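Write out structure tokens for Phosphonate C-P lyase system protein PhnH.
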Amino acid sequence: MKMLTAFAQPVDDAQQTFRILLSAMAEPLQPRALPVLPPALPGLKASTAAMLYTLADQEVRVWLPALPDETISSLRFHTGMRMTDLPEQADFIVIAAGMPLPDLMSLKAGSAEYPDRSATLLIEVASFAEDQVEGSGPGFAMPRRFGAAGLPSGFWAEWQRNHARFPLGVDAMLISDTHIAGLPRSARIREG
């Protein structure tokens, strides 16, 4: 099995990507261009691979959809991440394009003492638009219109249930081919 390439400059590229990720979470639902993309991996967008190369390490558990062995081996080699077969145990949950959404209420939501010990969803989408929902809350100077083509069915209704548990709950990063948009659990969503 051949090893697939990751970031060309692993430290610099991951740092640049992390800065964009922080900015995306600080200003929710505001798509941000990723500064650098690694080569695509079979079964995953290059942008999703960039998120995993940036966030995953030997300390976290990741749940992945069924992917080719070479993709999983490459991710494990370059990040040291641990895999889990149960989304409920994962720190990061990858939802590839076209996959159904797991039950958000069953995922790690943190605790009153440690709300940061929750899961983050990495959800692949086709593109971003401004036509599905209005977001408000921390990080919004004013309400913002947002949409994402290719979200799992029923996503926004599930997200409203997730937000109702705040400060507990999960966070999400929506990932297109070249951009990401942060969706922290604190974001209030109104459909329509």
